[in-house]
Design a protein that fits this description.
The chain is α+β, with helices and mostly antiparallel strands. It has helices at about 55-60, 75-85, 85-95, 150-160, 170-205, 210-240, 250-315, 330-350, and strands spanning about 30-35, 40-45, 60-70, 100-105, 110-120, 125-135, 140-145.
Length: about 350
């Protein structure tokens, strides 16, 4: 399946708001995990279904329900019925090729973005869609499979570190977004180290394999940029939102998150420009080596042209060549050729052509 664009033939002809799973099958079992907390109490559990959402929405605690696996469309519909989600939200959750965005509804806020992971076997960056539904007391998150970057947030909740246990659902959503963006920076920095090391390799010994590395890195940066740039717009819309679900106290944190995503986007552009410069350096290095080779060949050709001319004259079949009857003609012939070659080499050396 294409990395940059998902195949949407599955929902071709479907009515708007009809949830149809679009993406690659990544899990055989849907996992529902619950973290419910307030300043004094914490509950962490696995749920068999979403029927408990009705009670969680009425509680005063903060409930984070995370669903791993998007193939179960009936489960999505059940979540939509319990929380009163708009059909377009369910459609966007099921579409794993959705562009990062922020939508505001009467009783909920919807966000969708990408999480990045490094595939060490293929040496590429892979993405997973993360969807968030923010309601009054419940944060509902959807992932394509088990495994994410949120374990530090879970540890902060378990250990009562920071302000997360004393704040609402909006701060929890911010904490998850902040972790995703931090992971962006980590992966970009990791990729950037390899790109910077490539410059040393180009300067020391440019090889044809360098072209493949530059091409691969540029592809990965394009893949990252495609997902990161809309996140800035998403966070900006979240900052500007006047929804009651977002407290005024969260605004400084969201603005800081906006600065962080801007910095991340600029890092991608910087490394992309660096790769373009490295590509020019590679071509310049190859051209320089080719020029050196051509210069040496030209000098040899310049030396041998007059020698070939002399040898051509005395290699003819004319009967009367006076020099042929001299006793030392052969040695004089070699002396002239060696002297001529030596004089030309000295001349080239003084001109710094050698």
């Amino acid at each position: 399946m294409a990395r940059f664009l998902k195949n949407k033939l599955m929902n071709k002809g479907s009515a708007p708001g009809t949830p149809v799973f679009i993406g690659k099958h990544k899990t055989d079992e849907v996992l529902i995990r619950l973290i419910d907390y307030d300043p004094e109490n914490l509950r962490e559990d696995k749920l068999a279904d979403l029927s408990e959402l009705k009670n969680l929405a009425k509680n005063k605690t903060v409930s984070w329900v995370n669903i791993d696996g998007l193939e179960d469309i009936e489960l999505l519909k059940q979540a939509g019925e319990i929380l009163g989600l708009h059909p377009l939200v369910l459609e966007d959750i099921a579409n794993t090729g959705q562009r990062p965005k922020f939508d505001e509804y009467d009783n909920s806020l919807f966000l969708v973005l990408k999480m990045f992971f490094w595939d060490g076997r293929e040496e590429i960056i892979i993405s997973e869609q993360l969807s968030m539904v923010i309601s009054r007391n419940v944060l509902l998150t959807f992932q394509e499979r088990k495994g994410d970057v949120f374990e530090p947030v879970r540890e902060r909740i378990r250990n009562h570190r920071g302000r997360i246990r004393t704040t609402g659902v909006d701060y929890l959503a911010y904490a998850l977004l902040d972790t995703v963006v931090d992971n962006y920076q980590y992966l970009i920095a990791r990729l950037g180290e390899q790109i910077e090391d490539l410059e040393t390799e180009i300067l020391k010994n440019p090889q044809p394999e360098v072209m493949d590395k530059i091409s691969n890195y540029k592809t990965e940066l394009k893949y990252i940029r495609k997902s990161i740039r809309p996140v800035r717009e998403m966070v900006l819309n979240l900052v500007r939102s006047e929804s009651e679900l977002i407290s005024d106290d969260l605004t400084p944190f969201l603005k800081d998150l906006e600065d962080l995503i801007v910095q991340t986007s600029e890092s991608v552009d910087t490394y992309n420009d660096m790769l373009s410069d490295q590509l020019n350096m590679y071509h310049m290095g190859i051209s320089s080596r080719m020029n050196d080779i051509m210069r040496v060949l030209t000098i040899f050709a310049a030396i041998f042209i007059p020698l070939t001319f002399i040898a051509g004259i005395y290699g003819t079949n004319f009967e009367y060549l006076p020099e042929l009857h001299f006793k030392y003609s052969y040695f004089i012939f070699w002396g002239v050729m060696i002297t001529l070659a030596t004089v030309m080499l000295i001349f080239f050396k003084r001109k710094n052509w050698l």
